[in-house]
């Protein structure tokens, strides 16, 4: 059976889709599984936390380097070959990580994991786009949205529980058997064939893409901790920007580019890409700021912090398939307007946090915010992809996923920088006010009381910094809300038989 050639009359291959989604689920879950375990890993290997952070940074960098090549890989190889290769790499990396007894081996294992997981997302997205007609894609992509949002969202909660009760290696022991089962099912169940496609990857494009996207991802992800004036930050950003400019110019001159940037000529795809970037920046603000508020300011344990955020993740997961069906019926604009309005209101409510905000209030606001986000992310992305001709689907999914990676890194860096600067400013103001009050007082505090007061002022300053950052995030969401008014239902252009021929257009889909 040729699974890539599904037409509107043929029933989509649901069994194969389930296997692909199972692989994607463990890959997405793995992306956030180590976040809470980093202190334990750093202590076990007796390394500095900044070095341990490379388990996250390295994973992200490999994703950023591999995803842009996915358009070429999807066109060149069959779904079976790509998925089995990706799942094999992921499973091998997971097993290797569980047995790692030195940090370099663990880091290498994580990067092998990432090389596999980075291919699964574009392969699955492209497969869904080619397996369903446009009028039913929303439902299919809604289920995919469940995996894309729910899996990484439960990662910290699951990780917190495991690290609290077991050693960190259990994180890999839990994922390994699942990855192996999915790999075995893929070997026996996915039977697609692909005619030989005579295309070759341009090595210079790969180098420029790796330097460009890798440099930007590393630069922005490091800015929050090292500061913008660090040479490693601005140096890699400059190199990344220059390489990316040359990469884009080279792709525009090539007959068969590695990544087709001409798809930005389709207005609705371009609009969806911009909205997705803006939403990703806003999304990462809460993903970063909420744990800081809950754990650092309020002193709640990592596991219980994860539990507070879990209802929002569950709601987002439940709503993704429902929003997919609503998208098929009503289109993306209605969902985006409602979703972004909810997101803007709840983000503003987060800018009013205090030391006494109840956990019930936090759960409710966060859950409604995730509900709003779920109404925007996949519908907007799917609507943009729907405008593309079928032969452009691999490039559309590759660009969307690459932009999501980069915008997430940008959002993290910008939000952390703003929070740090505002925290420092509020700290100076609060310290000056406290000094003034002490100078007017007839009694001087004891050293113990002074230390307690300094700690309280530090927490209050961080709280104010978090509130200010959330307020700026409201403005980011409002930009996306304004842009969503210009969204309309996308319809892909009709293609002639010659245009859709894989031998003439180097198609990914047979």
UniProtKB/TrEMBL annotation:
Lineage: superkingdom: Bacteria
Residue span, Major facilitator superfamily (MFS) profile domain: 16-492
Keywords, sorted A to Z: Cell membrane, Membrane, Transmembrane, Transmembrane helix, Transport
InterPro entries: EmrB-like (IPR004638), MFS (IPR011701), MFS_dom (IPR020846), MFS_trans_sf (IPR036259)
Membrane topology of the entry: Multi-pass membrane protein
Pfam families named in the record: MFS_1
Record field: transmembrane: 12-34, 54-75, 82-105, 111-129, 141-162, 168-188, 200-219, 231-249, 269-294, 300-318, 330-351, 363-382, 469-487
Subcellular location, record wording: Cell membrane
Family: Belongs to the major facilitator superfamily. EmrB family.
Protein name per UniProt: DHA2 family efflux MFS transporter permease subunit
Source organism (scientific name): Niallia hominis
